[in-house]
Specification:
The chain has 341 residues and is α/β, with parallel strands linked by helices. It has two domains: 170 residues, Glutaredoxin (3-Layer(aba) Sandwich); 136 residues, Glutaredoxin, CATH 3.40.30.10. It is 33% helix and 19% strand. The strands form four sheets. The protein has a five-stranded mixed beta sheet. Strands 12-11-10-13-14 form a five-stranded mixed beta sheet. β1 and β2 form a beta hairpin. α1 packs parallel to α4. The two termini are 33 Å apart.
Length: 341
């Protein structure tokens, strides 16, 4: 993301960014509203959630009885922390007709960090760590992302700011008298294919330059390396997660160093959280990234390969079989790993 720190603060305050034109979805609120456009008015998914304390929450059982307020957030997210007092106050004053649930996005986070964050901020509401299913069901694109579901089980509001629009949606959602929404099927989630020994899928993705990139190459067999990234990892996480930021930088530098090796095929897969194709192009140009890049806007590839952290590197041999998975803690050994192919 181009200026995530300033954009997040500007979005939180409801102001624009001076000195440059903004794209339609350039603010957090715009991105959230665009993500929610096809959701508002539809039946919310009936999913069973597990809290980090082991409790079970059946969303489907709540519909028809209570309104539901889900907020996607992350421990590294600055506006999430800034909005947390509003969120906690909503929980403490909710009453019997509103269920409030904190949904950690499950992106570059851990149970340890979440529990530490809960203690530091005194959070009392139930917390769920998403495995990708909720994010897929509610088109997660930013953090925080607010989802308000009415007592009728229909999604009434999707947004980013803790403002009057959110407060009004929380009031409206509690009102009775609407026809109950029809039962919805649980959100589909891809079966992870990122285990060692699995074959890469027989499909292609489209790069930001409009070119197809097939995961398998039966005509010219070569090892394939999938590099899962976020274009704002190095800049935004430099203050909130400096170790991860440094790992993203080191991985990018090693990839750039190795990208010209004709014996290996590379594809960079960028998370769609807080990122657009424009952001990804700017990242490529600013850092002189020399490998093809594709934007995983919906997170389908991250889920399909079981990736929840960046940088993550998956290496497949010439037959397309996955032979190594490298996570942030060991990404520094990428040079050595490629050298053994």
């Amino acid at each position: 993301m181009r200026t995530l720190h300033w954009m997040a603060l500007a979005a939180l305050l409801g102001i624009g960014v001076q000195g440059r034109a903004l794209a339609t979805e350039d603010t957090g609120q715009d991105r959230a509203e665009a993500a929610g456009k096809e959701l508002v008015g539809s039946a919310a998914p009936r999913m069973i959630l597990k809290t980090i304390d082991g409790d079970t929450i059946d969303l489907g059982d709540l519909y028809g009885k209570k309104a539901v307020y889900l907020k996607f957030w992350a421990t590294w997210c600055v506006p999430c922390r800034q909005q947390m007092p509003h969120f906690e106050h909503t929980y403490e004053t909710a009453g019997p007709d509103l269920a409030v649930i904190a949904v950690n996005a499950g992106f570059n986070d851990s149970l340890e960090e979440i529990r530490k964050y809960r203690r530091a901020l005194g959070i009392k509401m139930p917390i769920v760590m998403d495995d990708g299913r909720l994010g897929a069901a509610f088109n997660l694109r930013v953090t925080p992302q607010h989802i308000v579901i009415g007592r009728d089980g229909r999604i009434q509001y999707v947004g980013h700011l803790a403002d009057a629009r959110l407060d009004a949606a929380l009031v409206t959602a509690r009102q009775a008298g609407f026809a109950a929404a029809p039962a919805s099927a649980p959100a589909m989630t891809e079966h992870p294919a990122g285990n060692l020994g699995d074959l890469l899928p027989a499909r292609s993705v489209t790069t930001i330059d409009g070119k197809p990139f097939p995961f398998r190459t039966p005509t010219t067999p070569r090892p394939t390396v999938l590099v899962f990234i976020s274009p704002w990892c190095e800049s935004y996480l430099a203050t909130t997660r400096p170790a991860i930021s440094a790992s993203c930088r080191r991985t990018r530098e090693q990839v750039n160093q190795l990208a010209q090796d004709p014996r290996v095929r590379w594809i960079g897969i960028a998370s769609g959280l807080w990122a657009s194709e424009e952001d990804l192009r700017k990242y490529r140009d600013d850092y002189k990234v020399g490998i093809p890049l594709t934007l995983d806007e919906s997170g389908a590839l991250f889920r399909a390969f079981g990736v929840a952290d960046v940088p993550t590197v998956l290496i497949a041999d010439a037959r397309g079989k996955l032979v190594r998975r490298m996570v942030p803690d060991d990404a520094d050994s990428l040079l050595k790993a490629i050298g053994t192919l």
